[in-house]
Amino acid sequence: MADAPTAIDNPAIEAPPFAVDCANAAKDAWGASFDHPFVIALADGSLDSERFRFYQMQDARYLEAFADACSMISSRCEEPETKLWFIDAARLAIVVEQQLHAGYGETLGYTAADIRTVELTPNNKAYQDHMISSAARGSLVEAIAAITPCPWLYTDLGQHLETRMGEIPNDHPYADWLRTYSDPGFVTYTNELLRHLQVEADRHDQLYLDRARDAFTKSVRFEWMFWDQAWRMQRWPV
Q1: What is the pLDDT of residues 188-236, one digit of tens each?
Q2: At what angle do helices 122-137 and 49-76 cross, to 10 degrees?
Q3: Pairwise CA distance, residues 170 & 12, whole Å
Q4: pLDDT, tens digit, for every residue of 54-85?
Q5: pLDDT at 26 over 50
Q6: Domains recognised in the chain with CATH numbers
Q7: Contact (CB, 8 A) for 28 and 6
Q8: Disulfide: which of 9, 122, 126, 135 matches 143 by Cβ 3.0-4.6 Å?
């Protein structure tokens, strides 16, 4: 996908100033996800089912860590509405998005029990540790910055693919996945998250903003690594 956009090119995304700064810092890593062979094969429907099954099971476990990070962030928020937003974000990761995994589990032959016992890949484990560490030990703006690339990149990718492909045909093997991340509700969720990121950015000085931007960039790199671990069906080397 040589025409892959930058994060701030998407007109559906209302990126405030600090989100723009983060996106610019991670521009190259962001665009690399659009060019990854896993993403390209997923979009055109040629991705083999074993790779997609591997991805789905690892992603289900990743979402558990994402929910944990959101829960930790909620406990640190002072405003009740913000606290509730991150509690709902944790619930969304577990309840709503894993409905997609349950549907594909029936098709691809895995169960919730299989997900619970799957071994995390090195890339997945490192990404989860980065998010949880940021949520536990970083400033609040750093904690939010570390979780932001996942929904933002998926929203951007879903919108980009919808623009390229038009209406997704019902016989596309990954139609449900593509529709999930191009849905207007997911765009709204992403824009709300970016607003929360800006609120915290406005409360922190430059040192903390630099650390938050670094956490954001690392998560963008981990997003590429997540595609890659699924494409290679990564195992621990020893």
Answers
A1: 999 999 999 999 999 999 999 999 999 999 999 999 999 999 999 999 9
A2: 10
A3: 24
A4: 999 999 999 999 999 999 999 999 999 999 99
A5: yes
A6: 49-231 (1.20.910.10)
A7: no
A8: 135
Contact between residue 29 and residue 94 where contact means Cβ atoms under 8 Å apart: no
Paired tokens of 38: 């896993």
Write out the DSSP string of the chain: -TTPPPGGG-TT----HHHHHHHHHTHHHHHHHHH-HHHHHHHHT---HHHHHHHHHHHHHHHHHHHHHHHHHHHH--SHHHHHHHHHHHHIIIIIHHHHHHHHHHHHT--HHHHHHPPPPHHHHHHHHHHHHHHHHS-HHHHHHHHTHHHHHHHHHHHHHHHHH-SPPTT-TTHHHHHHHHSHHHHHHHHHHHHHHHHHHTTS-HHHHHHHHHHHHHHHHHHHHHHHHHHTT-----
Residue 1 has a pLDDT of 46
In this prediction, residue 195 carries a pLDDT of 98
Burial of 199: CB neighbours in 10 Å, binned 0-12, 13-18, 19+: middle
